[in-house]
């Protein structure tokens, strides 16, 4: 008996998902509740377990396809396996027995469906060892190294440098022993499975359905069969055609502005290269951010004297105890975490007509690499110590430069810090990292003349820039956030003691000696705070009710 595997409920207001990864292939044995595949929506990742134990049958929705709720994903043959799937699964084993195997594209990461072949380290005919590097693939975010699955000879390179390959696609063929004729012979002995592999079905569809598909220009893969064992009927073709007609055509991409003509004497001195795959999504996302968000930038400057003095005083002890250098990034991360608690809208994001407030801080640290900009995320940075933050920044920064970061380590950030000062930038306007609503730009520390207590002195100053989404963050909130960061950095002891910023405390107002309220002092203030009723102290209403100026604090 065959059991259908369908798309589960995806959540409120979510109507479709993309098949990210299949963990089983046709013919594989599966146990009840064993993971079959992973679906990805615009909000969450959903795992699909096996409803029953048996043998994996046909996979209807391949990786990368978009499916609706309750759509058919695959079938499972309960009990004894059907004859067709084992035959398909035996084919690789036969190839291995003859000494030839395929080199396939490895798992590329969550939501990544294709990659570009960057470099081949071996040529056809070269001898390779097991786990020796064969080639390097480049995705939108990371570089993936492809090792040799076994020792042998590289007989054929299928995907050349610069070619785009799909996840689980074939890269090359590797012969581990018997010669190149064996795969040809094996392929010639059993030509029958080839049509089955191309069609994905071992059954004959209804003749009327085949005629209808030919008339409407549909392939069997575009129609969901409701007949026995997935057989496509004429009604299925009519439903698929109606659904295709109802689906609006995708909007045409905006036309690119044609390149201006180049003088003949200059054309010979130009060099045209393909934009790296990592750079393409960076360019697209940055432009999308400008087109979507109502982006605005506010500036301030911070006196780094106290932070630098504190760092110089304790940096040797810090290294001795924690084994890592105390830098400036941990101070800025801590200061931002404190400010985000006071101005939570900077740590929020817009989802349609809703505002999603994050009661945690996943801090993104923009990192420049030889191939482009990446933003690794330090999760729950608000709950970390200075040493933990510095260790995370150092570890993720090194892995980012080596291209070893996973997709999961670059997703989920709620706020970002970008330090252009390491390159000498004095002032800039950082671009938002969507869907975040704020990004802090750090810059070069430079001594400038400042007026301190009526005297002009040289102080190490840094310009700070906060770019924010004006749709969710008002100017008051943005300025308040930046001032709170400034206060924390100019008095870093408050960070160490986890104190609120001094501007938030209540400061008694002077009301004049002619008023009985002049008795209001620090002692009276504490007494009032400790009392349940103001009348027990003075018999009169509290000052905050009588004098509205108290409310500003």
> How much of the polypeptide forms β-strand, as a percent range?
15-25%
The assigned structural class equals: alpha+beta
Query: How many individual helices?
Result: 14
CATH architecture term of the largest domain: 2-Layer Sandwich
Major pleated sheet:
7 strands, mixed
Highlighted features:
27% helix, 553 residues, globular, OB fold (Dihydrolipoamide Acetyltransferase, E2P), seven-stranded mixed sheet, Dihydrolipoamide Transferase, disordered C terminus, alpha+beta, four-stranded antiparallel sheet
Write the layout of secondary structure elements.
Blueprint: E1 2-6, E2 16-22, E3 29-30, E4 35-40, E5 45-49, E6 54-59, E7 66-68, E8 72-77, H1 84-97, E9 100-104, E10 114-120, E11 127-128, E12 133-138, E13 143-147, E14 152-157, E15 164-166, E16 170-175, H2 181-189, H3 193-199, H4 207-216, H5 234-246, H6 264-267, H7 279-292, E17 295-303, H8 305-322, H9 329-342, E18 349-351, E19 354-356, E20 363-365, E21 367-369, E22 372-374, E23 377-378, H10 386-401, E24 415-419, E25 438-442, E26 446-452, E27 455-469, H11 475-490, H12 493-496, H13 522-530, H14 543-546
Helix pairs in contact: 4-5, 9-10, 9-11
């Amino acid at each position: 008996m065959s059991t259908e595997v369908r798309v589960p409920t995806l959540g409120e207001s979510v109507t479709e998902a993309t098949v990210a990864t299949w963990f089983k292939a046709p013919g594989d044995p599966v146990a009840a509740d064993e993971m079959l595949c992973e679906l990805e929506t615009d909000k969450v990742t959903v795992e699909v377990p096996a409803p029953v134990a048996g043998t994996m049958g046909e996979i209807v929705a391949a990786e990368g396809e978009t499916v609706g709720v309750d759509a058919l994903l695959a079938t499972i043959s309960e009990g004894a396996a059907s004859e067709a799937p084992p035959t398909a699964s035996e084919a690789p084993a036969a190839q291995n027995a003859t000494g030839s195997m395929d080199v396939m594209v490895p798992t590329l990461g969550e939501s990544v469906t294709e990659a570009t072949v960057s470099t081949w380290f071996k040529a056809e005919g070269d001898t390779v060892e097991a786990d020796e590097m064969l080639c390097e693939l480049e995705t939108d975010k990371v570089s993936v190294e492809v090792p040799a699955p076994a020792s042998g000879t590289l007989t054929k390179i299928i995907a050349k440098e610069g070619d785009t390959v799909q996840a689980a696609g074939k890269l090359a063929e590797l012969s581990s022993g018997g010669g190149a004729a064996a795969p040809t012979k094996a392929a010639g002995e059993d030509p029958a499975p080839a049509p089955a592999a191309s069609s994905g079905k071992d059954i004959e569809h209804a003749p009327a359905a085949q005629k209808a598909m030919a008339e409407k220009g549909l392939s069997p893969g575009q129609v969901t069969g409701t007949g026995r064992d997935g057989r496509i009927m004429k009604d299925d073709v009519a439903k698929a055609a109606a659904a295709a007609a109802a689906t609006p055509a995708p909007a045409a991409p905006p036309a690119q502005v044609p390149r201006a003509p180049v003088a003949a004497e200059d054309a010979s001195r130009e060099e045209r290269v393909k934009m790296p795959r990592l750079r393409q999504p960076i360019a697209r996302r940055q432009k999308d951010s400008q087109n979507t968000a109502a982006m605005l930038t506010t500036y301030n400057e911070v006196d780094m004297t106290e932070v630098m003095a504190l760092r110089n005083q304790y940096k040797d002890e810090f290294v001795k105890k924690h084994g890592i250098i105390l830098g400036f990034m941990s101070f800025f991360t801590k200061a931002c975490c404190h400010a985000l608690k006071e101005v939570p809208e900077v740590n929020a994001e817009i989802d349609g007509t809703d505002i999603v407030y994050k009661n945690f801080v996943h801090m993104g640290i923009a990192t420049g690499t030889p191939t482009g900009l990446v933003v690794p995320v330090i999760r729950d940075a608000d709950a970390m110590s200075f040493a933990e933050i510095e260790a995370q920044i150092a570890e993720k920064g090194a892995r980012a430069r080596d291209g070893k970061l996973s997709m999961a380590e670059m997703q989920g950030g709620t706020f970002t810090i970008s330090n252009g000062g390491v390159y000498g930038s004095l002032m800039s306007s950082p671009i938002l990292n969507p869907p975040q609503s704020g990004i802090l730009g750090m810059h070069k520390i430079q001594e400038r003349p400042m007026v301190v207590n009526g005297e002009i002195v040289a102080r190490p100053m840094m310009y700070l820039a906060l770019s924010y989404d004006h749709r969710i963050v008002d100017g008051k909130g943005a300025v308040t956030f930046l001032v709170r960061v400034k206060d924390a950095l100019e008095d870093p002891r408050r960070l160490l003691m986890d104190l609120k910023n001094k501007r938030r405390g209540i400061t008694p107002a002077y009301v004049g000696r002619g008023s009985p309220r002049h008795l209001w002092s620090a002692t009276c203030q504490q007494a009032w705070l400790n009392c349940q009723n103001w009348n027990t102290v003075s018999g009169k209403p509290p000052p905050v009710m009588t004098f509205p100026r108290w409310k500003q604090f």
